[in-house]
Structure formats: structure tokens, C-alpha cells
Amino acid sequence: MTRTVVAGAVIDGPRLLVAQRSRPPELAGLWELPGGKVEPGESPQEALARELGEELGIEVTVHETVGGRVEVAPGVDLIAMRCVLRDGTPTATEHLAVRWVDADGLRALADAGAVVPADTAWLPDLLALLDAPDAQ
Ligand SMILES: Nc1nc2c([nH]c(=O)n2[C@H]2C[C@H](O)[C@@H](COP(=O)(O)OP(=O)(O)OP(=O)(O)O)O2)c(=O)[nH]1
Fold first, then answer.
1. Which residue out of 2, 3, 5, 72 has the highest number of ligand 1 atoms within 8 Å of its CB and is therefore the one to mutate?
2. N or C: which terminus of the chain carries fewer CB neighbours within 10 A?
3. Which parts of the sequence belong to the Nudix hydrolase domain (predicted)?
4. pLDDT tens-digit profile of 83-133?
């Protein structure tokens, strides 16, 4: 059975929330969209809201899928969903750091090779979201 990992494109105005992985060693230090595994019986939306609450202490409303489905390991698929921040200040508990980036900041991370490989597939979609903040 395919497992799904869901990641949040949390948007606040012209900025996107990115989080710096602390593990595993090959991903540590790189930036990702925060999230985690969908547990049995959960919808992707429920899982994402739960993970962002647990990992970052924020409350979000989960919206549509952003970009395509990415296979991160055999039998493990990653999807991103647009989220709007409803409450809380993102705080790194499992991550090394969290940061808000605008379109230029996201491009700079990508150009520096500092984005986790799987997420680079979403860059055009994420930049389009940041360039059209009124679409929220
Ligand atoms: N959350 C997240 N995981 C990603 C992204 N890109 C990417 O390749 N991954 C990979 C890293 C991990 O192999 C897997 C998700 O692991 P995770 O550590 O975030 O999820 P989790 O909290 O549910 O994991 P765990 O505590 O049960 O080990 O997907 C991304 O943007 N967000």
C-alpha cells in the first residue's frame, strides 16, 4: 500500500513558511515544507493540520493540493497542500529553524541547493502562489 506524506505550503500574505530539517543526516540542514505521514484513518487534510500543530504550534486551514505527487521512497508519496495560517507563531520543535520567505527568498534557497530534493518539483507552483497572494 502506498503511504502518503503531506506537506504544508503555509502562506501568509506574500510569504511562505519553510522549515529546516534536523534529520535524517542526508536531509539535515535543508529546507522543506513542514508536514508528516498520514496515519491510518486520517484524511490528508486532518494529518497536515495535526502535524503542523504538533511540530510548529500553529493552527491552519488546509486548502487545495499544490503541484504534483512526488515519490520520495518506494511506496511513499509526498503531496503539498496550500494552508492559511489561522493562529499561532511557527516555532521549531523538531526542525532546526523555521523561516518565512518571499518569492526571492525561495529562489535564493533553491539556487543555493538548500531545498530538499523532492520539494524542488514544486518550486514553479510555489512561486506562482507567492506571485498571486490575492488568490488566498
Ligand atoms: N514533511 C516533509 N517530508 C518530506 C518533504 N520532502 C521530503 O522529501 N520529505 C520526506 C522526508 C521523510 O522521508 C518523509 C517525511 O518524514 P517526516 O519526518 O517529516 O514525517 P513524520 O514526522 O510523520 O515522521 P516520523 O516522525 O513518523 O518518522 O518525507 C517535505 O517537504 N516535508
1. 5
2. N
3. 1-128
4. 999 999 999 999 999 999 999 999 999 999 999 999 999 999 999 999 875
Distance set, CA 31 to CA 1, 4, 109, 131 (Å): 28, 19, 8, 20
Q: Which amino acid is at 112?
A: A
- Overall CATH class of domain 1-70+91-99: alpha beta
For residues 25 and 7, what is the distance between their CA atoms, to the nearest angstrom?
A: 20
pLDDT at 136 over 80: no
ipTM of the complex: 0.89
Three cell numbers, residue 42 = 486520517
Read off the pTM: 0.94
Alpha-carbon distance of 55 to 97, in angstroms, equals 11
Gap between the Cα atoms of 98 and 119, Å rounded: 16
